[in-house]
Each structure stands twice: as structure tokens, then as C-alpha cells.
Amino acid sequence: MVTPTALEAELFEVAGSVPDPELPVLTLQELGVLRAVRLGHADAVEVELTPTYTGCPAIEAMSLDIERALHEHGVREVTVRTVLTPAWSTDDISAEGRRKLREFGIAPPRTVRAPGPVPLELGPTRADGTADRTADRTADRARPAAGIAHTVPAGSAVAVTVPAADPAADPAAGPGVEPAAAQDPIRCPLCGSAETELLSRFSSTACKALRRCLACREPFDHFKEL
């Protein structure tokens, strides 16, 4: 990892202070979409920006606002480059950003990924390097009805665990939410109650769902997990 220079860190703060065009309560730095600011030759800066999802309509407005902010700071040439890897996640929203969302009346997203490396389990392969389909067929024959956790008995080609469906999972959370996140309650940002219900999968923007608190009866937006 390359350590930014003092000037690059200063310019990162300038670019990061630009408000998000769809959620102006958050800055781009708090939203976590600003990846890097690199200084090229004199008066030339390259900015790396990751959209919240591919095709996000706000990315153009973000780029123009970053260019304007850096120009006003004295930078003559600004290039904003869209970077898709690593992909943005709601886990990239800072603690300050989550606090601001809550104060603004929006329930912040729950944590999706545990910190640290992502575990990956690989199945057995044959000597020629191709995947062993015997294990897949054995697991398919032994797989029970949806919603029931089951493990193929030892002695078969491989022991495969089929996770049970999570009845508490929130359909508004969307794909990519791990069970630990899906089981956490979505709390009302107005009164703090965990007793809430889904009204609509989409709200004012595609990244938010509309919910209602069963305690104070007030509707509120929930920033969906990704």
C-alpha cells in the first residue's frame, strides 16, 4: 500500500468533503466511495471513485462536484476515474456517516461482512483438475426441503452442509446479506425500537427501503445492506 503524501492527504480531504448528491447529509468520504487522490505532475490530480452500484446515475454528479472542489482549491487539472474493484459495500460507510444517517431519520445499514479474510471452501477435484461431480450429485440427492439444515452422512463422497433459510431475514436487505446481518433488528432511527415492519422494498432512492416503526408508528427509510 502506497502512503499518500501530505498534499495528497490534503486533497483527499477536499474531495472527500463533497456532499453526496442523493444523500447530502453524507460526504463522499463518509459514504466510502472516494478511494484515492493521487498527485501527478504539477497541478494535476487523479481521483479514484467507486460507485455504490454499476450504472449509478449519481456518479457523474459526484465527478463534477469533485472537479469543482479541487479546482477551487487551486488544482488546475483534475481527472476522476471510476474504479469498480474492490466493489463498494455499505460496510464502507464510516461510523460518522452512520451517525449522521440516524440523526437524519434514516436507519443505517447493518454490518454485512465480518472483519478479516473471507473464508473460501473448495470441493475435491479429480487428478485431471476438473471438479468432482460425484459430490455434487450426492449432495443433491441428500438435500432436504428448503429451510431445513442437513449434512450428508460421513462415508459419502463428501459431507456437504445446506444452510437453513433464515426466517428472520429481511427481504428489503437484498442479496449479499449474511445471516448474522440479516438477524440483527432494524431499529427505528426516531425512537430506537427494534419492532419495525417493511412497507416497500424501495423508497426515495433504490438504495433505501421504506419501513414503519410499530412503537411510534412513524415511517422511516432504511439504507439497505449491500
- As a percent range, the share of helical residues equals 10-25%
**What's the overall geometry?**
globular
Order of adjacent strands in the largest pleated sheet: 4-9-8-7
User: Could you give the count of β-strands?
Assistant: 9
What would you report as the Rg, rounded to the nearest angstrom?
Answer: 23 Å
Report the order of strands and helices: HHEEHEHEHEEHEEE
Structural class: alpha/beta
- Spans of at least 5 consecutive residues whose pLDDT stays below 50 are 131-180
Distance between the termini: 25 Å
Count of DSSP H/I helices? 6
Can you summarize the main beta sheet?
Answer: 4 strands, mixed
Roughly what is the average pLDDT, rounded to an integer?
79
Strand content: 15-25%
What this model shows, in words?
With 226 residues, this protein is α/β, with parallel strands linked by helices. The protein is built from 6 helices and 9 strands; from the N terminus they run ααββαβαβαββαβββ. Strands 4-9-8-7 form a 4-stranded mixed sheet. Strands 1-2-3 form a 3-stranded mixed sheet. It has a two-stranded antiparallel sheet with strand order 5-6. Strand 8 and strand 9 form a beta hairpin. Helix 1 packs across helix 3. The radius of gyration is 23 Å and the shape is globular. About 22% of the residues have low confidence.
Keywords for this structure?
four-stranded mixed sheet; 9 strands; 6 helices; three-stranded mixed sheet; alpha/beta; 18% strand; single chain; 226 residues; globular
SSE diagram, text form:
Blueprint: H1 6-16, H2 28-31, E1 34-39, E2 44-49, H3 59-72, E3 77-82, H4 95-103, E4 106-107, H5 133-142, E5 150-151, E6 161-162, H6 179-183, E7 196-200, E8 208-213, E9 219-223
